[in-house]
Amino acid sequence: MSQTTAPAAVPRDLAAPRAATTPSGKPHDFSRKYWVFAVPAAVVIGAVIVFPWLFTVFMSVQDWKVGGGIDYVGMENFRQLMADTRFQEAMWHTLYFTVLGVALPVVLGTAAALVFHREFPFRGFLRTVFVMPMMATPVAVSLVWKMMFHPQLGVLNYLLSLVGIGPSEWVFNPNTVIPTLVLVEVWHWTPLVMLIVLGGLAGLPKEPYESAVIDGANGWHMFRYITLPLLWPFIMIALIIRTIDALKAFDIIFVISEGGPGTASETMNIFLYLQAFQFYKIGYASAVVVIFFGIVVALSLLLLYTRQKSKWNA
Amino acid sequence: MAKLIGDLSRRDLLKSTALVAAGAVAAPAIVSRANAQSKFDWKRYKGEKIDVMLVKTPRGDLLQQHEKEFTELTGIEVSSEQIPEQQQRQKAMIEFTSGRPTFDVCMLALHVQKRLSYKGKWTDDLRPLINNPEMTNPDFDVADFGEAGMNFATQADGVINTLPHFVDFWMLYYNKELFAAKGVEYPKSMDEIITAASKLNDPSKGVYGFVSRGLKNANIPVWTSWLLGQGLETIDPKTGKLNTDGPEAVWAGEFYRKLNKEFAPPGTIGFNWNECQTSFMQGRAAMWLDGIGFATPLEDPTKSKVVGKVGYGITPPGPKAHHSAIFADGLGIAQMSKKKGPAWYYIQWATNKENQLRMLKAGAGAPARQSPFKNPEGTQSKTFAKDYFDCMAGSGKIGRPGLPQIIPVTEFRDIFGVALTNTLSGADVAAELKKATETFKPVLEKSEQG
């Protein structure tokens, strides 16, 4: 199938620009002359990524509280973290929040994309309305949601009462706080998933569907065996973005529940915030960052690997 | 008297009148000379410029609104900024620790930063300035600052590294209409709060007997208010002993749980002051224990359904003592500031009688000075009834710190806050307080060593 052309068959003048060789005919060594162009990017990456990261690792092995001295303690911060039941709880809360906060928007966003892909009256207008939550500032919407969750005076319990359902304590109950926070997350970020999947749907080829109709496939078969596999790379992109977003969720949780009641919604980010900016335990907080970074990288690699596997031509 | 006048000759009377008239004419010159003798001069630092960091509050607004007055008086330019509470505390911590603060004057929350500011040498001892007649206005009147505020601003060894600006008293808001409807009197003791709450509690009508903070960290002053009724602070200010798991602390914890579980609206476990305020403001709670600084919206007809019905009661006495938990803000001069003179002038102006009176008149909270409460102008208000001012003045006389005066205050609030919240979920009070005390002990010990 593939045929290669021998470089020798191409006239020398056309094979490479004149400047690519020295007067003596030897090829230029670009790597030596033009490395200077890479310096600005290298400096920026070094300053904003590599240095902070190395410094965080350095701090994670120190006992350092703002206003106090710095003592090298080796892996002591990590050992303490592993024994800290509150940190373990925070990891569990993060996992719980992330699983729900990824799964629900992806399922609902995909469903919404399938709906909005069809032709119907006012489709453009309704699409715009649907994506509006995504444009709202998280802190502002969190404050509004918090008012709506008020057990006595919030509108949500009033709405529940209209359909005969008893009042809920929403974020004011340790058992319901995380699912309720996920509700806000779903409302906020489902439109993003919808947009990604909608983009994927617009690019799907028509031929497989025509063949399927000729073969007698029904709607479900076409969705299950054609649409979903073809959409999978796009859903994976949505999954990766949502997972990273949900893992680092802070604003919604902090504004609405502050990690409470008690520690019922204290995720790793809230735990980290407390250690770093309330208790000023920089060394301990840096150890949390190092562990958190490891988790994010591992998950991202796993998702990227899965995405590679899900490519159409894989 | 008539005889005395009758004995005076016409010449004597004329002489006396002339002397009085001469005295009246000469008085300003005498006062001016006296001030000149005091060597204090408001214009000493004319042309200087200072930076001031305030907390975003109605008090900060008032100071900023009247800054021009200070500049006209002294010729000192002021560049001030107001920052929300949490961020302001973080900024203060980082900048003071860096050794190069960008401000000359800083507002500090004494209930959180008192010991920290002293141990970290954040701010200067103000006593040499206060005692220096060249630097302090003769009218400043330090003795006018209330005992509660001054105690808060004074360190254990007598150093005064801030001057109190604002004091917040914890007290009991109550709905007079609901009380009258059920024929309930204002509680005369802490135990009577429970009796009153049980009579006023009517969940079928959406009305609850009592509301207070349940959210961790925010809930600590509720517990400490009850503990003060046992005559104890959470950490003994003299010995440093933790009073957090003894029988008195457990009693206060049980009291906290009973009120917040049996007579409070659903969900109080996650309530901070604003949720409590909303419940009370909408007439859904008969009593609310919190700081008096949250009173203004209750009397705002656009926000509140209880305008004119709010009673302001001093925290009732406990089994062994009668105290009101207090919180305070103070103003200090950064030790690293190169403009300490102008900075001290600013503090004198900010905490003078006129500005403190303005605070009271504006309903922006309780001033640290006593004179505004004695001034009829200060307590004549279209917004608040007399009991509001009586409550502030009365609470000031029995005020004791609502939080321990230690460095790791935030850790204290977090650890014990979680313990108290857990009790609302059914955990045993004594066990939770014991566990929290064990967790907190090493944190406290380390902070004192470091």
Structure write-up:
The complex is a heterodimer of chains A (314) and B (450). Chain A is mainly α and 314 residues long. Chain A has one domain (78-309): MetI-like fold. In chain A, 68% of the residues lie in helices and 2% in strands. Chain A contains 14 helices and two strands. Chain A has helices spanning 12-15, 30-33, 39-60, 76-83, 85-117, 123-135, 138-149, 155-162, 177-202, 207-214, 219-247, 251-256, 268-278, 282-309; strands at residues 62-64, 70-72. In chain A, strands 1-2 form a two-stranded antiparallel ribbon. In chain A, a hairpin with a 5-residue loop joins strand 1 (62-64) and strand 2. By secondary structure, chain B is α/β, with parallel strands linked by helices. Chain B has two domains: 49-168 and 326-400, 3-Layer(aba) Sandwich (D-Maltodextrin-Binding Protein, domain 2); 170-325 and 402-449, D-Maltodextrin-Binding Protein, domain 2 (3-Layer(aba) Sandwich), CATH 3.40.190.10. In chain B, 48% of the residues lie in helices and 13% in strands. Chain B contains 20 helices and nine strands. Chain B has helices spanning 2-7, 10-38, 58-65, 67-74, 85-98, 110-119, 127-130, 147-153, 176-181, 190-200, 220-228, 247-262, 273-281, 340-350, 353-361, 371-374, 376-379, 386-397, 409-424, 429-449; strands at residues 49-55, 77-83, 105-109, 163-175, 287-291, 310-314, 324-333, 366-367, 399-401. In chain B, helix 11 packs across helix 12 (247-262) and helix 19 runs antiparallel to helix 20 (429-449). The radius of gyration of chain B is 25 Å and the shape is globular. Chain B starts with a helix and ends with a helix. Chains A and B meet through helix 13 of A and helix 5, helix 13 and helix 19 of B.
Question: How would you sum up this structure in a few lines?
Answer:
The complex is a heterodimer of chains A (314) and B (450). Helix content of chain A is 68%, strand content 2%.
